[in-house]
Structure formats: structure tokens, C-alpha cells
Amino acid sequence: MDASDQVVFVLQLVLALGPLAVYFLGLGLVNSQAHPCMVPARTDFVVLTIALVPLIMGPVLAMVKFGGWWPLAVASVAAAVFVGVLLPRRNSGWVIYNTSLPQCRRLLYRACRRLGLSAEGNDEQVQIAEIGLTVFLTALPVLRNVTLSLRTQSGRHGEGDQAVVRRLMDTLEGEIQEESMLPSPAGASMVVIGAAMLAVPMWFFFHHVDAIARAVRQIFFA
Predict the structure, then answer these.
(1) How many CA atoms lie within 13 A of 193 on its CB side?
(2) Domain coverage including residue 143
(3) How many Cβ atoms sit within 10 Å of the Cβ of residue 97?
(4) Domain assignment of residue 198, yes or no
(5) Residue 42 contacts by C-beta under 8 Å, 6 or more apart in sequence?
(6) pLDDT 10s digit of each residue in the chain, 222 long?
(7) Residue 38 is assigned to a structural domain of this protein
(8) Which of 60, 61, 97, 99 could crosslink 75 through cysteines, CB 3.0-4.6 Å?
């Protein structure tokens, strides 16, 4: 492998693993806090997409050498359509990190009681009849989060109901901030995973720093 190939390989490795490593580091820090963390589902989806797209696009870029640019163009269009279809609507859901399904459901019930709303349901959904709202809860234990998907009954899209829904989410966030808990071992594990993933491209970077420096000099001082 000559110097130019080494530089390309290191840059590809940094591009592929860097965003995913930073994602796991951030996820580990969030899961190490003393209380859960609530983010919009749309924001969570965008961040996860940014972390995964470079990893997925790596093999596509390698195919450019053999099949021209059309695989990259097709993959880019397919990825854009895929992301556009799956991108959650604004205020249609929330993701709560550093929590479990029973804890999340308990916090939601507490927020409803604080607003004088009655809530009933099971492990997978909570129904709030006064505002015609159903909250679907989906747990992902691997990442230690719970997704709350909001569904309003047909014909219940009035400004009053929507205002109560916004107040409910604000109240839930307030309940989350008041929740005290011990740091999760899962958070430390995610930090270790992120650090290890970041260490791999950094090791290659410093191992080939001379080749990278020569390539930079050729680009700027040729």
C-alpha cells in the first residue's frame, strides 16, 4: 500500500467510524446522568442517521472504483427517499433516554395526574381520553431508551387539545428533570464502546501521520 492509498484508507476509516463513535460517546454520557433525558423523535432520528450514513456509504464509495459513479447516485437517491419516508413529523413523538419502560410509564402517569388528566393502558400504550390522545411506548433496552409515539383520535385536532398535549409533554419533561437515579452501568459501557471505536481510526491516523502530512503538503504547496 503506497502513501496515497494509506491516506485514503485512514480518511475512509475516520469518516466511517468517527460519527458512530461520537454517537456512542454522547449516548453513554446521556445514560450516565442522574436523571433521564428527553429529546424529540425527529431530532433523535436525524442524529442517528448522521451517525450511520457514513458507515453505510463506505461500501458504496468503494464500488465507485469498479462501477463508476452510478452506484453512488442510486444509493444517495435511495437513502434520501428512505430518510424522507421515515423522518418523524414534528411533535409526533419523543425519545426518553436513560430510562426503562416501567419508569417511563410511571413518569407519564405522574404528568397526567399533575394536569388533572386520567390515563389508563398497558405496557405498550397509554390512553388519555380527555384529549383523545394515545401514547404508544416502545422500549429499546440495548440503547436504554423508550420512544413515545403520539396518536390523536380522528376529529380531535383542535387547538385546545393540541395545547393540552404540548402542556403534557412539557410537564413530562419537568417530571423527568425531578427524577433522581443512580448512574447506569450501561452508560459507562457505551462510553467504553465509543472510545474504543474512536481509538481505532485515531491509531491509524497517528500511525500514518507522516504519509498524511506529505499528502497535505502536496495539496497546498504543489
Answers:
(1) 16
(2) 33-178
(3) 22
(4) no
(5) 87, 88, 89, 90, 92, 93
(6) 555 666 667 777 777 788 888 898 988 888 888 889 999 999 999 888 888 877 776 666 666 566 566 666 776 787 788 778 888 888 888 999 999 999 999 999 999 999 998 888 887 899 988 888 899 999 998 888 999 999 887 655 555 567 888 899 999 999 998 888 777 777 888 888 888 888 887 887 777 777 667 766 766 665
(7) yes
(8) 60
Q: Name the strand (E) or helix (H) holding 217.
A: helix 209-221
**What CATH number is given to the structural domain containing 172?**
3.30.310.80
CB atoms < 10 A from the CB of 85, how many?
7
* Cell numbers that stand for 90 in this block: 414534528
Query: Residue 152: which of 141, 160, 144 has the closest Cα?
Result: 160
Radius of gyration of the chain (CA): 23
**Domain count for the chain:** 1
Task: Write the single-letter amino acid at 17.
Answer: L
**CA contacts within 13 A on the Cβ side of 211:** 16
Q: Is 117 helix (H, G, I), strand (E, B) or coil?
A: coil
